[in-house]
């Protein structure tokens, strides 16, 4: 029997480690495939298979070749970038995964908006412009022809993630400036090096109002299973859209949560997602009485799980709970539990990574539900641009009731840049409590006790060749 799990990831960070640990607990060996720097032979010493995720056909062939010598029990892809490779490799190896066409569509905000709209689902109005468009003509197009929807607009790249390069513009002049800023970001050496074909375009969308939620779910052999709805209690109104707090279970009325579950399930059908993780974002305009959604837009559906360390805020148990904070979430069919190796012996809980490794192996996971405790994470906002020197107050912040962990991920000397150009948070705060309100309060209290030292960064002068 094959006993190796292949993890495909662009960078080998916290999430990769969490998946590797989950695989080891299940008695599996782990192999990696990555597209990070290949100039040096095996610079990280982990024998990772060197792949090029921008060429999923060729990368999938390499995976199939690799599997001849090392038979694979399953493949997991972390983040959006490796999913087209994973889908093709799994199809060739008869391993369960989303189809390649679905993985491709989910990778691209233009294609996914198009498919969802064609299926009759509600998405913000959108128009795609080539990055090469002259600014004036791009805006002329925006004003006159292809953009038929009113301001405010959201200008965004199609190839980046974590709100990078996403800018709200309330006037034409601001839209033109935002377009220029996104173009410069896409042409920066760091982004250009990714060679993503979607970087050839910039999308202009109608700005849609409302509260926002993130949905963590999975599809198991075609059956949609909702795992958690996260509220985002900080308003996301722009001009930049920095994620901060995620709290689950949602405090939205049960009827609205049901509408959310139905919309995501409809998106799964429209996108033909079949087997694997799923992360979605939705915006909801509530009726004045707030018991139902007046309008609900699907902002994004990724064939991937929640990113980075945030997955730590999720734990799953096999017993359905009742009369708890979790009980307002819409549930899907619960099958009898089957305790397996890899469960947390103290809590009987498993991590999201463990659940997704089991899914990749083809094990049945539909019996798991999120734990009864409310839980949440704060992605600590970048306080200001500069060089991170350190942070004080961590012990004080950790002592806040219900706070479980504080992870400072920034390294001294690292440059921190806020959105829209920046791409990483300085750290994360985790909390668990009986209610979502307590979780949110704990995260805010802990954050207020942290003091970041950031020194001004020296301006970078580009070297010019004559
Ligand atoms: P990313 O994939 O980089 O996270 P998204 O397209 O999901 O980019 O946008 C990031 C955030 O920006 C969304 O979560 C939302 O808060 C905001 N946003 C994006 N598009 C719109 C829009 N059309 N209307 C309102 N807000 C938007």
Which SSEs are present, and which pair or pack?
Blueprint: E1 4-8, H1 14-25, E2 29-34, E3 49-50, H2 56-69, E4 72-77, H3 83-93, H4 100-107, H5 109-118, E5 126-130, H6 135-144, E6 153-157, E7 167-169, H7 172-186, H8 189-192, E8 201-206, E9 211-220, E10 223-231, E11 245-248, H9 254-271, E12 276-286, E13 293-302, E14 315-317, E15 350-351, H10 352-361, E16 369-370, E17 374-379, E18 386-392, H11 394-398, E19 403-408, E20 415-416, E21 427-433, H12 436-448, E22 451-455
Parallel strand pairs: 1-2, 1-4, 2-3
Antiparallel strand pairs: 5-8, 6-7, 6-8, 9-10, 9-12, 11-17, 12-13, 14-15, 14-16, 17-21, 18-20, 18-22, 19-21
Adenosine-5'-diphosphate binds at residues 109, 124, 154, 156, 160-164, 166, 205-208, 212, 236, 241, 281, 299-300.
What would the keywords be for this entry?
four-stranded antiparallel β-sheet, binds adenosine-5'-diphosphate, 466 residues, 4 domains, disordered C terminus, 22 strands, globular, alpha+beta, four-stranded parallel β-sheet, D-amino Acid Aminotransferase, Chain A, domain 1, 12 helices, Dna Ligase, domain 1, Rossmann fold
Structure description:
- This protein is α+β, with helices and mostly antiparallel strands and 466 residues long.
- The protein folds into 4 domains: 4-95, Rossmann fold (3-Layer(aba) Sandwich); 125-206, Dna Ligase, domain 1; 211-352, ATP-grasp fold, B domain (D-amino Acid Aminotransferase, Chain A, domain 1, 2-Layer Sandwich), CATH 3.30.470.20; 375-455, Pyrimidine nucleoside phosphorylase-like, C-terminal domain (Aldehyde Oxidoreductase, domain 3, Alpha-Beta Complex).
- 28% of the residues lie in helices and 26% in strands.
- It contains 12 helices and 22 strands.
- Strands 3-2-1-4 form a 4-stranded parallel beta sheet, sandwiched between helices. A 4-stranded antiparallel beta sheet has the order 5-8-6-7, sandwiched between helices. Strands 10-9-12-13 form a 4-stranded antiparallel beta sheet.
- The chain starts with a strand and ends in an 11-residue tail after the last strand.
- Residues 109, 124, 154, 156, 160-164, 166, 205-208, 212, 236, 241, 281, 299-300 line the site of adenosine-5'-diphosphate.
